Amino acid sequence: MPVTAVNNSSPGKTGLDRFNYGNIAAENQPRYSAHVVLAYIFTFWIYWNIRREMRHFITVRQLHLINPAHSKSVQANTILVTGIPVKYLSEPALSQLYSHLPGGIAKVWLNRDLKDLPSIYDRRLAACGKLESAETSLLSTAAKLRRKELKKADGTNESFESADPERNVALAERLVPKDQWPTHRLPAGFMPFSLPFIGEKVDTIDWCRKEIAATTGLLIKGRQTVADESLSLSEDVNGDGKVDRQDLNKQTYPPL
Fold first, then answer.
1. How far is residue 96's CA from residue 54's CA, in Å, rounded to a whole number?
2. Which of 2, 108, 127, 202 is packed most tightly, with the most Cβ within 10 A?
3. 117-153 and 204-230 helices, crossing angle to 10°
4. Quick check: 134 and 205 in contact, CB under 8 A?
5. In the predicted model, what is the mean pLDDT of the chain?
6. Considering Cα of 52, then 58, then 64, then 67, what sign does the dihedral take?
7. Where are the beta strands (DSSP E) in the chain?
8. pTM for this structure?
9. Closest CA to 35 of 7, 3, 9
10. CA gap 243, 232 in Å, rounded
11. Quick one: which of 66, 71, 87 has its CA closest to 255?
């Protein structure tokens, strides 16, 4: 700022404008050299800081990578490879392909197309949670009814008194009338969730048991299909002497 302001002025430059770059008069052009020198100084200073911090980053990163707590983790010993040719879409082929890596290959996982299996598993998990809540509610209701019956019986019926509905679900189901069993409403039409007073009202316990049985069957069938596909190796289908993209439509393994 002193270079552009001291003993130097341009027409129309007042106030803070006297300190900017454009205030240098025509007869004081050599003063621009001060700006050039400062530009070089600040440029090299920034470059030096970037280089120093980069060296520090590389050192810290290498120390982290060789740290036993990290180097022995699954994350540090697993790589994701995409775009694999069809002829290598099998565990033996990939193990042989990468066998030259230091330390060898411990395990090869192929990313299979599970299709609807994750959503079916989530359905079964949700049904199990709903069934657990419904049976807990049923047992609680049965225990309340049993206490009322005990008060009426006044301890005269020993067999009834020894029965514990909280330990016997079948007994709880007999004690609780059907109209007092837990119920819920199914989603109406295309809606992904249910709303009060809308949708079919079903018995929660019966519905959950049927849902768990249905989803378990679908999971068993789907897992068997995935297992059968994993045993099928790529082969030359069209008989041209090589396995390439023309054989892809016959492969059970989808490309990664």
1. 38
2. 127
3. 150
4. yes
5. 78
6. negative
7. 183-185, 201-203
8. 0.52
9. 3
10. 14
11. 87
Residue 154: exposure state from Cβ atoms within 10 A (0-12, 13-18, ≥19): exposed
Q: Token pair of 248, please?
A: 């892809």
DSSP symbol at 1: -
Parallel, antiparallel or unpaired: strands 201-203 and 183-185: antiparallel
State the amino acid at position 170 in one-letter form: A
Question: Which tokens in the block code for residue 214?
Answer: 């249905």
Checking if the pLDDT of 212 tops 60, the result is: yes
Q: How many residues does the chain have?
A: 256
Phi, psi of 107, deg, nearest 5 = -160, 145
Output phi, psi for 185, to 5 deg: -105, 140
Which tokens hold the place of 121? 């598993």
pLDDT in tens, 47-98: 999 999 999 999 999 999 889 888 888 888 888 888 888 788 788 888 888 8
